[in-house]
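DM from R.C. (forwarded with permission)

"hey, sorry to bug you on a friday — could you get me a structure for this? deadline for the figure draft is monday and I only need the backbone to look sensible"
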Amino acid sequence: MKVNIDIDENYEEDSITIKAKEWSEELEEIVKVIKKRKQPRLFGVESDQTVLLAPEEIDFIFAEHRKIFATVKDRQFEIKMKLYEVEDILIPHEFMRFSKSVIGNLNRIARFELSFNGNLCVYFHSGNREYISRKYVGPIKEKLIKGGQ
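My reply, with the result:
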C-alpha cells in the first residue's frame, strides 16, 4: 500500500483520499481508525470495583450468559457494553474476532495449536488460551503474516 501526505498551510481543513481498486476489510479498518479521534475508555467491573482497562493488557474479550468479560492475566472483568461495541473500540489496538463470541488481542498471542476439527487453539503470553473458529482462522493468519496493520 502506498501512502502520500501533502502538507500545505493553504489548506483550510484536513482531507483524506483513498484510491483503491475495490473495497476491502483493510480499507474498512483504516476508515474506522481515521474516524475515531478519541477512544472511549474501557471499564471493567470486578468485586464491585470499577477498573480502567488498558487494551494492550487484555488477552481477549468474550460473551457468556448474556454478559461480556475481559480477560487480563488470571483475572476476568465484566464489561457493561455489547460485544460489537467493544470490538469497535478495540480494532485500532490490533484486536480481531476469534469466534462469534470472542474478540482477541493479536499482540498478546504466544503460539498456536491446530485442533482436529480445524479450529486453532491460541495461547497467550499470560498462559490463557482460547479457540479461533475455522471461519476466522484465515483472516487472522493473513493479518499476522502482514504484521498487523
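R.C.: lifesaver. The domain at 25-146 is CATH 2.40.50.1020 (OB fold (Dihydrolipoamide Acetyltransferase, E2P)).
me: no worries. The longest strand covers residues 67-72.
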